[in-house]
Design brief:
Blueprint (H helix, E strand, L loop, with lengths): L15 H20 L10 E6 L5 H12 L3 E5 L13 H11 L2 E6 L4 H8 L4 E6 L5 H14 L6 E5 L6 H13 L2 E5 L8 H11 L3 E4 L11 E4 L10 H7 L7 H4 L7 E3 L20 H6 L1 H12 L4
Parallel strand pairs: 1-2, 1-3, 3-4, 5-6, 5-8, 6-7, 8-9
Helix pairs in contact: 1-11, 2-11, 3-4, 5-6, 5-11, 6-7
Length: about 300
């Protein structure tokens, strides 16, 4: 399947050949960055970043990726900066940005907003998250990190924390399914991965998925521990959030039981779910993980714009 001018709204939009191409191209981009020899493949191209929700890593890494490839960036980082405050619809905002740019990245709190944007834009649209739905480029970063650190074959991965609302894990589980690793889900009952997603991944890829309630159940058996925060902003009832906050915490004591070579990943930002004492250990890969956002997004932008 050709990636040129394709919309990337969920990881379900991708097939394994697409993912292989993106990951391989990401390796090339990382090489360019290390050698400080990045070609200006996107010179004259403009990326529009439409962020209706807060973002640090995603917005900045997309900006860095576009600029490193010679392109330029326009956009906004909060709804307060837009005519939405005057009543403008999402579709009209997207139409205007589309006319000013060559490719759009959008983050919005409403499920389905990425698809709505793609439906009215003539240029490619990349979703950077629509509510608790999907965050496909984060998933691609996750896969690139796992490939670099552990490989994608015969690897055991545990996804831990907020699996109900966490859009990063909703994207990642589909990508993992393509490669057939052992997938373990670790969460409290109230934050389990939605049954629809679990059933869909099992049916589509035929992979085994196990569910657990505590980190102690899996830490000695997995190669990758992917930790997510309990997302306060997704809870209507703050007292319910308070009951779950800090219920899953990775610290040196827990990691004494870890399998040799385990890596700990996190999409960031973290709150209290990974102790800072872990940062200086060989387990910690979450900052390397975040840095890979630039080459992965460089790869995706260049492929979608046909500059390979």
């Amino acid at each position: 399947m050709k990636l040129k001018r394709k919309d990337i709204i969920t990881t379900v939009d991708l097939i394994k050949e697409d993912v292989d191409k993106i990951l391989n191209r990401s390796e090339v981009m990382l090489g360019y960055l290390k050698r400080e020899e990045v070609p200006e493949l996107l010179k004259g191209k403009i990326l529009a970043t439409l962020f209706f929700e807060p973002s640090t890593r995603t917005r900045l890494s997309f900006t860095s990726a576009m600029q490193r490839l010679g392109g330029s960036v326009l956009g906004f980082s909060t709804e307060e900066e837009t005519s939405v405050k005057k009543g403008e619809s999402l579709e009209d905002t997207v139409r205007m940005a589309d006319s000013y740019s060559d490719i759009i990245v959008i983050r919005h709190p409403e499920v389905g907003s990425g698809k709505r944007a793609a439906d009215v834009a003539k240029n490619p649209v990349i979703s950077a998250g629509d509510g608790p739905n999907h965050h496909p480029t984060q998933g691609l970063m996750d896969m690139f990190t796992i490939k670099k650190e552990k490989g994608l074959e015969k690897v055991s991965v545990a996804l831990c924390g907020d699996l109900k609302y966490g859009r990063t894990v909703h994207s990642l589980i589909y990508l993992l399914g393509m490669y057939g690793p052992e997938i373990n889900l670790v969460s409290p009952d109230s934050l389990r991965m939605p049954d629809k997603i679990v059933k869909d991944v099992k049916k589509t890829y035929g992979c085994e998925i196990k569910e657990f309630r505590t980190l102690q159940d899996v830490v000695s058996d997995v190669d990758v521990l992917y930790v997510t925060r309990i997302q306060k902003e997704r809870f209507l009832n703050i007292s319910e959030y308070g009951k779950l906050e800090g219920s899953y915490r990775v610290d040196k004591k827990l990691l004494e039981k870890a399998k040799k070579g385990l890596i700990v990943m996190h999409p960031l930002p973290r709150v209290s779910e990974i102790s800072t004492e872990v940062d200086s250990t060989p387990f910690a890969k979450y900052f390397d993980h975040a840095a890979y956002g630039v080459p992965v997004r460089m790869a995706l932008l260049s492929l979608l714009l046909g500059k390979i």
